[in-house]
Specification:
Rossmann fold; globular; 2 domains; single chain; alpha/beta; 15 strands; six-stranded parallel sheet; Dihydrodipicolinate Reductase, domain 2; 10 helices; seven-stranded mixed sheet
Length: about 325
């Protein structure tokens, strides 16, 4: 008996796309990598050779390959909407990395493209697939902890991303904070009503007037009254640190085991343990589970776990954060 393997094409094979391509080629029994495309043809050729898949010269060439049934869009986010629409219009199921777009109009364009035909659209919020977050969701949804009331989140990247001051908090909101906007909606099962964002340059050796903020605190209110407090910080230096706490009426769920391994070393100088250096290490299992689930859904034709409307809601919150930083007040979503 043979098991059908779904052909996967990956668009954009930089850091994130490379991992998706590796997962399709090596780690997901129901998938096979059949094509890659990147605007940098040298990168595409190298990854294609490494993983045994042809490197396409264009997106159209990848979409003309009848073996491609799933398209993973992991290109720079300014290309997401156009590339997703092109793939959906050709009847390909699309796993679209976040953010799905930078405007609500483009989000709606992507959603319409999915609704127009039979292709499936899922947004790449992989944290929902992390075992600890998935279990927290199960517990909260079961009612075991009572009504969810408060979501607190920490997202700290080890490296600082130095951007010109003119960028404001756009990149932070759309590349990092957007994960916690989505998680808060997912775990509280409610819609974000307003976002108030305060941000600053917290790099002591840098001129605060020359660089965009690398730290932000986001105060979020939800439609039914719940609250969220979301910290985003680029430049923590000590490691990649993602934690969440969901305070409910009769209990609290906490996610955020930061040790990369269970090894602790004790010496006269104290105790030490290793930390995660980055998101690929911390959420490696989640990325595999996400693609495996999406590929399985292609065979079974079941609805995606993270919808276009979920992606749109997260973009709307990110836009509110950008607007709040500019206005100095809470902005509606």
């Amino acid at each position: 008996m043979t098991t059908e393997r779904v052909g996967v094409g990956v668009v954009g094979v930089g850091l994130m796309g490379h991992r998706h391509a590796e997962n399709a080629a090596w780690h997901i029994p129901g998938a096979r990598l059949v094509a890659v495309f990147d605007a940098d043809r040298t990168v595409a050729s190298r990854i294609g050779q490494e993983l045994g898949a042809p490197a396409c010269a264009s997106l159209d060439e990848l979409l003309e390959n009848d073996d491609v049934r799933v398209v993973v869009v992991a290109s720079p986010s300014r290309f997401h909407a156009d590339q997703a629409v092109a793939a959906l219009a050709r009847g390909r199921d699309v796993l679209l990395e976040k953010p799905m777009a930078h405007s609500l109009a483009d989000c709606d364009r992507v959603i319409r493209a999915a609704e127009h035909g039979s292709a499936r659209l899922q947004i790449g919020f992989m944290r929902r697939y992390d075992p600890a977050y998935a279990e927290a969701k199960r517990l909260i949804a079961s009612g075991a902890l009572g009504e969810p009331l408060l979501f607190r989140a920490v997202h700290r990247d080890r490296e600082a991303t130095l951007l010109p001051a003119s960028r404001g908090v756009v990149d932070m909101m759309f590349e990092s904070t957007i994960h916690d906007f989505d998680l808060s909606r997912f775990l509280l099962a409610d819609e974000i009503a307003t976002v108030a964002t305060s941000a600053a340059v917290l790099i002591q050796t840098r001129d605060a007037h020359e660089h965009a903020p690398n730290a932000a605190i986001n105060a979020v209110r939800f439609s039914r009254g719940a609250l969220a407090d979301i910290e985003t910080y680029w430049g923590a230096l000590y490691g990649y640190d993602v934690r969440s706490e969901i305070v409910c009426a009769t209990g609290t769920a906490m996610v955020g085991h930061q040790q990369r391994t269970r090894l602790d070393v004790y010496t006269a100088g104290g105790a030490i343990h290793d930390l995660f250096p980055g998101f690929l290490e911390r959420f490696g299992d989640a990325y595999r589970a996400e693609l495996a689930d999406f590929v399985g859904g292609t065979l079974e034709r079941r609805p995606p776990a993270v919808t276009g409307l979920d992606g749109r809601a997260a973009v709307a919150a990110a836009l509110a954060g950008v607007a709040s930083y500019a206005s100095g007040r809470a902005e509606p979503v």
